[in-house]
Design brief:
By secondary structure, the chain is an alpha/beta fold. The protein is 34% helix and 26% strand. Helix 2 links the parallel strand 3 (49-52) and strand 4. The chain is globular, with a radius of gyration of 16 Å.
Length: 238
């Protein structure tokens, strides 16, 4: 099995539970620092799958942040070439954008843990069938997107309707941060605290988010590891 490509889109990205999940699944990973202009876009021929992670930038910044179009081109190539592809938060938005859907401001800003509602199709999905109605998942985003034409909706949310989808048999977009673990969450919270007040700008305080993590993070991490393990299996068989 060729290595899985992790696409890093933010300097504060540590990949959470993903590295250990892929290691436990027997899959090697390599990282593309997509924001590094000196780093050439990798060849998909060298990889069995691609995972695109989150970013503090949004699709609306594509003209001023060239890496966003580079990531979009890579994702389009993966879809066209039937390379297994998984987009997380920003990655899910870029995939939708690449597939021709509109990305726009969500009806609510989501941060911290919120319930997810699997759609009927999720029960048979290879990546997300282990999620149940009301499972608490970690969110941090202000944008959302329309379901790409021909895609299958897999999950919704109470505040933001579209939370997961599949395009074809080998491409997934998941809005929530199923990868995040407590160290990464604290890194993000501490970094944001240097710039603004979370409660004023996002509607929850850092203490509220940390309290939620105390209740939900352990189960959240188990679900996240399982999602990555399943993706590694898909990538190994493609």
């Amino acid at each position: 099995m060729k290595p899985v490509l992790f696409v890093k889109c933010d300097p504060y990205e540590t990949f959470g539970v993903a590295p250990s999940a892929f290691s436990d699944a027997g899959a090697d990973v390599v990282v593309w620092e997509s924001q590094d202009a000196s780093s050439d876009r990798p060849s998909l021929a060298d990889h069995s799958g691609v995972v695109v992670f989150g970013s503090t930038f949004n699709v609306e910044h594509a003209d001023e942040q060239p890496f966003i179009k580079d990531v979009g081109n890579l994702m389009a190539e993966a879809v066209e070439g039937s390379t297994p592809l998984l987009g997380v938060c920003f990655g899910a938005q870029v995939l939708a954008w690449t597939l021709g859907s509109q990305v726009r401001k969500a009806p609510a800003r989501e941060v911290g843990f919120e319930p997810v509602r699997p759609a009927a199709a999720a029960a048979e999905d290879r990546l997300v069938s282990h999620y149940s109605d009301g499972d608490m998942v970690f969110q941090w985003h202000m944008d959302t997107f329309d379901l790409p034409e021909g895609a299958t909706p897999l999950a919704s949310g109470d505040l933001v309707p579209l939370q997961a989808y599949r395009f074809g048999d080998l491409a997934w977009g998941i809005q929530f941060h199923f990868e995040i673990d407590e160290p990464e969450m604290n890194l993000w919270l501490d970094a944001f605290a240097e710039e603004a007040d979370l409660l004023e700008t996002w509607g929850k305080s850092a203490d509220q988010v940390r309290s939620e993590a105390g209740a939900y993070m352990s189960a959240h991490n188990e679900k996240g590891r399982e999602t990555f393990s399943r993706f590694a299996e898909v990538a190994g068989r493609a």
